[in-house]
Structure formats: C-alpha cells, structure tokens
C-alpha cells in the first residue's frame, strides 16, 4: 500500500498541482502506472473500492502511451500521414481525455479517503467494489463522449474550407463548435473546482490525523 500511496502522490502532483504535464512528469507517470498495474495483479492486494479506482487511474495512461508511441513512430521513421491535422488533433484529444479521467478518478479517491476518515461506518455501504467499478465506467464513458465531440469539432474545422457552401455542414459545424467551446469552458472551471475540493479534503484529513 505504501507504493500505491506514492503513486497517488505522483499523480496528484502531475494532474492537480502542475499546470501542465512535462516530459519528466509524463515519463514518471507512465512508469508508475505500469508498476501499479503489476502490483494490483498480486494476490497480496485485496480487492477494494480504492484499488478499483487506482487500477482505472493507471489504465488511463494507456491513452498517453498511444499518443507518445505514435509521435515517436512518426518522428523516428518519418512516416507520412495523409491527414496530419486529424491525427494531431486525435493525439492531443487523447492526452486531454487522459488528464480529465485522471483528475476525476483522483477526486474520487480523495472523496473516499474523506469518507473513510470521518464516516467509516456510515459510508461502508457506499465504498464497495461495485460502486467503484460503476463510477469508473461512467467517468470513462463521459470523457470518451467528450473526446469524440472534440475530435468531431476538429474534423469539421479542418474540412470546413473545402465545403463552405453546404448548409447542413455549416449548421453542424456551428453546433459542434459551440458545444465544444462550452464543454471546454466547463472542463476548465471543473478542473479548478476539483483542485480546490482536493486541497480542502486533504487539509481536513491532515489536521484530523494530527489531532489524533
């Protein structure tokens, strides 16, 4: 469990402390996720709701791996891509999806830690493997839908110049652009809110443990 705690600290720093990920934090995050996935396969780690959330958090770095490996293949072998704009947008959206999934899952872990600290008995029926699995799936579905909308918007922007006179395409472009802009604004403010909530939760937990 000490290794899992260190992994959570690493992820908190990567997604909720740093304003943006850099090469060092990304590399350490990928190594930590790989190590965590291996640890969670061990029979010594009990199947609890926290372990389910951490497992989903580690698997989210698969999106980063796909993006990094794709860029390395293109750069190393000088692979020509037919639709550079589409591919570039897709890789960026994968990184965005990873960040959003990670922030939400880290917030779920923080909330569970809050329940364990202050309401251990009352919250026992909430802190189940079934609920943790359902929460992880809902987060993945919502962020996948978000990523799909962003990718659709980027695709329509790239193709809007080739078919400017088609009214259905124009309407779809404006709808997609507006929805994507609103969702990006919502994601930005939600990210700030999650940072504040996480700081408050661990502030309460830290002083609660200190008083004990």
UniProtKB/TrEMBL annotation:
Localization, UniProt: Membrane
Coiled coil location: none
The domain of life is Eukaryota
Quote the cellular component terms of the Gene Ontology held in the record.
plasma membrane
State the Gene Ontology BP annotations: phospholipase C-activating G protein-coupled receptor signaling pathway; positive regulation of Rho protein signal transduction
Q: Which residues cross the membrane?
A: 12-40, 97-119, 171-203
Membrane-topology descriptor: Multi-pass membrane protein
**In its UniProt entry, what is this protein called?**
G-protein coupled receptors family 1 profile domain-containing protein
Its keywords, alphabetically, are: G-protein coupled receptor, Glycoprotein, Membrane, Receptor, Transducer, Transmembrane, Transmembrane helix
According to the record, the signal peptide region is: none
The answer, when asked if rRNA-binding is one of the entry's keywords, is no
- InterPro entries per UniProt: GPCR_Rhodpsn, GPCR_Rhodpsn_7TM
Organism per entry:
Pygoscelis adeliae
Q: Which GO terms describe its molecular function?
A: G protein-coupled receptor activity
- Ranges for domain G-protein coupled receptors family 1 profile come to 32-212
């Amino acid at each position: 469990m000490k290794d899992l705690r260190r992994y959570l600290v690493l992820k908190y720093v990567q997604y909720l402390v740093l304003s943006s990920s850099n090469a060092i934090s990304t590399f350490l995050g990928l190594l930590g996720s790989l190590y965590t996935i291996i640890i969670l396969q061990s029979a010594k780690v009990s199947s609890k709701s926290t372990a389910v959330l951490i497992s989903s958090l580690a698997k989210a770095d698969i999106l980063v791996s796909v993006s990094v490996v794709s860029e390395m293949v293109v750069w190393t072998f000088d692979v020509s891509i037919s639709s550079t704009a589409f591919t570039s947008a897709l890789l960026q959206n994968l990184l965005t999806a990873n960040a959003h999934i990670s922030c939400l899952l880290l917030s779920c872990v923080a909330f569970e830690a809050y329940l364990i600290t202050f309401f251990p008995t009352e919250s026992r029926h909430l802190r189940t493997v079934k609920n943790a699995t359902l929460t992880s799936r809902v987060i993945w579905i919502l962020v996948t839908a978000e990523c799909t909308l962003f990718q659709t918007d980027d695709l329509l922007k790239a193709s809007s110049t080739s078919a400017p006179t088609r009214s259905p395409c124009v309407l779809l472009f404006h709808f997609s652009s507006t929805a994507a802009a609103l969702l990006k604004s919502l994601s930005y403010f939600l990210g700030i809110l999650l940072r504040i909530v996480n700081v408050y939760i661990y502030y309460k937990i830290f002083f609660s443990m200190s008083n004990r």
